[in-house]
Specification:
Elements: E1 19-23, H1 39-44, H2 46-52, E2 56-59, E3 63-64, E4 76-80, H3 87-99, E5 103-108, H4 118-126, E6 138-139, E7 162-166, E8 172-177, H5 192-208, E9 212-215, H6 254-266, E10 273-276, H7 283-286, E11 297-298, H8 301-304, H9 310-326, E12 332-334, H10 343-346, H11 369-383, E13 389-393, H12 414-418, H13 463-467, H14 473-487, E14 495-496, E15 503-508, E16 511-516, E17 522-523, E18 528-533, E19 541-542, E20 546-552
Parallel strand pairs: 1-2, 1-13, 2-5, 5-9, 9-10, 10-11, 12-13
Antiparallel strand pairs: 3-4, 6-8, 7-8, 14-15, 15-16, 16-20, 17-19, 18-20
Helix pairs in contact: 5-6
Bound molecules: alpha-D-glucopyranose.
């Protein structure tokens, strides 16, 4: 950990103010040339992340997996999938990141395993009532012959949440619970063996030197006792972002797991951190995940889901600072990830599309790319001026839009299959990155293969093109990240300013931050000097969909 501080003073831990860059390994960089990104690919491109100016990376899952949900279906939590390389490749990547002063967080998927996990295979063989089945949520079906599922819950990916198994004697038997795909059976987190296994998995990666974990589905691991029927309200966000009292989201006992893990991480040096993926209806509830003895961070999904509206954005920022502040946790900020429509497209949608039902060739009104990009740049400019920790998703620093024209035959997201093509799902935000405009697969690899097709127009977003262009989104991100670091914007507090109903405006020290979300240019105060702007403009008024950092004499 050459350049990393080992111990921080209480309250100044790195994760309180870090900018954390999400790498989606299958789409970042592909050293093997098979069309799927890998760990050696990541290692080979670490310099570009150092140059960008981020503090840490979070890697989506690269563990052994049949890839039914792009690695979020783990068959062996202690090994690397051959698609991505080997444990030695991981160690090398980790060491190389640390040498560059970049911390590394890995994804942990504790709600469910793959159906190919040895425990699930044992559970199938062992039969009803066995300790092997007790590691998962097996139940007898309802109806005369158990032919009906144990309750009416609906999977996040569409269809029912239960799958019936065939018992050893060949007869239809019990059912098992899967919040997601049938290939992702849920663990039973009331089972002591499950708890012990995950303590050991945490230690496995902590011993290797990881700086923390992004915890998948951190609001879903505990289900309400008795598994009561539940019908979601129409059009509710399937991940739980819109509703109170869902029997499989946000159950109280889930917090005991994180209190346990908090203590385990505290045994290690270097401020190892837990960041929860918990989609909850309110910020008040979200803040429960980061009480002082639980997780260190949790994603601010209410912020991500906020439409491009000055009042709504101002309100969510205020409430975030307030609610996270009350429990002594940093607020986090995030605009994009591998599950939602990229914010360079999402912010120009006319109807809300928060949990990424996706955009595809047949979507009736597609977001305008130019408006989307202007808003995305302004939104990021605002975000990177906020106190707390910010998450970036690979490709947003290039201003990548959602890939909206992926032909059906390339789609891989289980959402697409489970809804019979009704929901496009998340493939559009997962397309491999463009590195070099003139290289095969835009430099993603040397062979030109790509597991999802890259749009031809992505040459203009390639990293080499943008590096050479002062006005590119990449150049803007670099300037923002360096100024954020220099000015210490990741910590401290902000002072709100009034710039009218169409603006979000606040001050950080002597820097004023102003974003124009309205329909008319917003005049700057007399004597204002623009330090940075999300797009260049002349005159003394901030254009529509633009943000600035400015000082006054
Ligand atoms: C999380 C992941 C998502 C995955 C799901 C099931 O929401 O971010 O990609 O499909 O969990 O593991």
């Amino acid at each position: 950990m050459a350049q990393l501080e080992q111990i921080a003073a209480p309250g100044s831990e790195w994760w309180r103010s870090a900018v954390i860059y999400q790498i989606y390994p299958r789409s970042f960089a592909d050293a093997s040339g098979d069309g799927i990104g890998d760990l050696p690919g990541i290692t080979s491109r670490l310099d570009s992340l150092r140059d960008l100016g981020i503090d840490a990376i979070w890697l989506s899952p690269f563990m052994t997996s049949p890839q039914k949900d792009a690695g979020y279906d783990v068959a062996d939590y202690r090994d690397v999938d051959p698609l991505f390389g080997t444990l030695a490749d991981f160690d090398e990547m980790l060491a190389e990141a640390h040498t560059r002063g970049i911390r590394v967080i890995v994804d942990l998927v504790p709600n469910h395993s793959s159906d190919q996990h040895v425990w699930f295979q044992e559970a199938l063989k062992a039969g009803p009532g066995s300790p092997e089945r007790a590691r998962y949520v097996f139940r007898d079906g309802k109806g005369k012959n158990g032919e009906l599922p144990p309750n009416n819950w609906e999977s996040v990916f569409g269809g029912g949440m239960w799958e019936r198994v065939v018992e050893a004697d060949g007869a239809p038997g019990q059912w098992y619970l899967h919040i997601f795909d049938p290939t992702q059976p849920d663990f039973d987190w009331t089972n002591e063996e499950v708890k012990e296994e995950f303590r050991s998995i945490l230690r496995f990666w902590l011993d290797r030197g990881v700086d923390g974990f992004r915890v998948d589905v951190a609001h879903g691991m505990v289900k309400e006792a008795g598994l009561p029927d539940y019908a979601p309200v129409a059009d509710a966000d399937s991940m739980g972002g819109g509703e109170e009292n869902v029997p499989y989201w946000g159950q109280n006992d889930v917090h005991d797991i994180y209190r346990d893990w908090h203590e385990l991480l505290a045994e290690y040096d270097g401020d190892r951190a837990l960041c929860g993926e918990a989609w909850l209806p309110t910020l008040k509830k979200t803040a429960l995940w980061v009480r002082p003895d639980e997780m260190h961070q949790t994603f601010n999904f209410p912020y991500l889901m906020t439409p491009w509206d000055a009042k709504a954005l101002g309100d969510v920022i205020r409430e975030s600072l307030d609610e996270f502040g009350k429990v002594g946790a940093p607020s986090t900020w995030v605009l994009s990830n591998h599950d939602v429509v990229r914010h360079a497209s999402r912010l120009a949608l006319t109807a809300d599309n928060p949990q990424g039902e996706g955009i595809g060739p047949e979507t009736p009104s597609k977001p305008d790319t130019k408006i989307g990009l202007a808003r995305a740049r302004a939104a990021t400019m605002l975000m990177l001026a906020l106190p707390g920790s910010a998450y970036l998703y690979q490709g947003e620093e290039l201003g990548l839009p959602e890939a909206m024209e992926i032909p059906d035959e390339f789609r891989q997201d289980p959402t697409w299959f489970r809804t019979n093509g009704e929901r496009y799902g998340r493939d559009g935000c997962r397309v491999p990155l463009p590195w070099e405009a003139d290289a095969p697969a835009f430099g993603f690899n040397g062979t030109g293969l790509s597991w999802l097709p890259q749009p031809a127009e992505w040459a203009t977003y390639a990293r080499d093109t943008e590096t050479a262009d002062e006005s590119s989104t990449l150049s803007l991100y670099k300037r923002l990240l360096s100024a954020r670091r220099e000015r210490g914007f990741g910590s401290g507090s902000l002072v709100w300013e009034d710039a009218g109903k169409d603006a979000v405006a606040f001050r950080r020290g002597d820097v004023h931050v102003l974003a124009n979300l309205g329909t008319k240019p917003l005049p700057l105060p007399a004597g204002a000097t623009v330090v940075l702007a999300s797009q260049s403009f002349t005159g003394a008024a901030v254009p529509v969909d633009t943000a600035v950092w400015y000082t006054t004499a």
